[in-house]
Specification:
- By secondary structure, the chain is an alpha/beta fold.
- The protein has two domains: 6-329, 3-Layer(aba) Sandwich (Alkaline Phosphatase, subunit A), CATH 3.40.720; 357-426, Arylsulfatase, C-terminal domain, CATH 3.30.1120.10.
- It has 13 helices and 15 strands.
- The protein is globular.
């Protein structure tokens, strides 16, 4: 047995918090994931660090919130109807190559590192710490020719080969699937199986259910391979999603969907399994994917680089049953951008999934600070009437229907103070007033060579 544990990160694209059967789906079938969850620690209040693909992935691989690295959008921070934008968004940046990533830290700590599937950050995986670069783009998937939906089975086979080739040394495998992102694809017999099944009240789309089942089959292949190689007991497997589900896939009772900072856009499934060390359990402690970096380093016995700033906190003590809570009090989000989405389910208005906003989740409380109203509509002096903040008690109101910002005044003011202090600490910029100096043209799809993922 290796002294250091192997680490597998099984990462799904756009899988919602309630999509796996073990999280409460009333239609999807995920027997392998259900078994996996029964053998690990299930985190019921887990979050992605972003409401869509690229920012969430940049946060996870860097261990940092968006103000540290600048990756705040997919493609562009100015997406949507320009006439409805009251401010100029903060420009998006790629994750800097000099940012010392999780993969680089594990590689320098003696791990063989490999990625298979979606990268979608900046540069190439080879430039950010991966020895084996199996990156693929959605444009390379040809389901009609391969009958392999989103290349899920070929990617899984490559991942299994990587584990076999490196079974004598500790490895970090990042299996980054394109499922269950649109365009939905699944093998016809699986679609027909779900078409013949009684629909659920929450979930009812046969093609999407088939795609979820294919993802579950991939997990089954990974776990079977680990056992065949004799690596099962000393391999830590993380299972999660990069953000919430799209609007067509409900996550009842959560509000919103991918692209929004309401719970439906950022709450995700998360399970960690390590048979030799971790006992099966359930946790309600809020975990965010920037916590993966310090957690994996601690589990691997690797010291953090002295000059590396990490915003996440290791949840190893929770995995080991030594603690029930983390020391931090608050999770933050900073997205000073416009993200298009006409009449999106759960959105604040009919034009955008996201307007410039900073968010704090502290205990049962969720606080949203909207830049437009703060900058243009009188700021804190008009807080009683300008709708610059929203406040929800997630324990009592997980659907975020009852805004308590004009009721729980003391809590509102305390969280506004906390958010401003955090923004100052991390140099998080507000969206900007519209001036000739700040102006940039709105993003238009197809305006340059772009990959299909959004």
């Amino acid at each position: 047995m290796n002294k250091k544990p192997n680490i597998v990160l099984f990462f799904v694209d756009d899988m919602g918090w309630k999509d796996p059967a073990f999280m409460g789906s009333d239609y999807h079938e995920t027997p392998h994931l259900d078994q996996f969850a029964s053998e690990g620690v299930v985190f019921h209040n887990a979050y992605s660090a972003g409401p869509n693909c690229a920012p969430s992935r940049a946060c996870m691989i860097s261990g940092q919130y968006t103000p540290r690295h600048g990756k705040v959008a997919v493609w562009n921070s100015k997406r949507g109807i320009e006439e409805q934008m009251r401010l100029e968004p903060v420009p998006d940046q790629g994750l800097p190559l000099e940012n010392y990533t999780l993969a680089e830290a594990l590689k320098d700590g003696g791990y063989k590192t490999g990625i298979f599937g979606k990268w979608h950050i900046a540069g190439t995986p080879s430039e950010q710490g991966f020895d084996v670069n199996g990156e693929t783009d959605a444009s390379e998937i040809h389901f009609n020719e391969t009958n392999d939906p989103k290349d899920i089975f070929s990617l899984t086979e490559k991942a299994c080969n990587f584990m076999e080739e490196n079974k004598e040394q500790p490895f970090f495998l990042f299996l980054s699937h394109h499922t269950v992102h649109t365009k939905w694809e699944a093998r016809q017999p699986m679609i027909e199986y779900f078409e013949g099944k009684e629909k659920g009240k929450i979930h009812n789309n046969a093609k999407y259910a088939a795609m979820v089942k294919h993802t579950d089959d991939s997990m089954g292949m990974i776990m079977e391979k680990l056992k065949a190689l004799g690596l099962d007991e000393n391999t830590i497997v993380f299972f999660t999603s990069d953000n919430g589900a799209i609007g067509k896939v409900k996550q009842t009772p959560l509000r919103g969907a991918k692209g929004m900072l309401y719970e439906g856009g950022i709450r995700v499934p998360l399970v960690v399994r390590w048979p030799s060390t971790i006992q099966p359990a359930n946790s309600t402690t809020p975990i965010i994917n920037i916590d993966f970096y310090p957690t994996m380093l601690e589990l691997a016995g690797i010291e953090k680089a002295k000059d590396k700033v990490l915003d996440g906190e290791s949840f190893t003590p929770i995995l080991q049953g030594k603690k029930e809570e983390l020391s931090r009090s608050t999770i933050y989000y900073h997205y000073p951008i416009y993200l298009d989405g006409k009449n999106a389910r759960g959105a604040r208005d009919p034009y955008f999934r996201n307007r410039p906003v900073t968010v704090a989740i502290q205990g049962d409380w969720k606080f949203l600070f909207f830049h437009e109203e703060y900058i243009l509509d009188g700021g804190e002096k008009k807080i009683a009437s300008n709708h610059m903040v929203e406040l929800y008690n997630l324990k009592d109101d997980p659907s975020e229907k009852k805004d308590l910002s004009q009721v729980e005044i003391k809590k509102r003011n305390q969280l506004l103070k906390d958010v401003k202090q955090w923004m100052k600490k991390t140099n998080a910029p507000l969206a900007m007033k519209k001036t000739p100096e700040n102006y940039r043209p709105v993003y238009k799809r197809g305006s340059h060579n772009q990959k299909k993922t959004h």
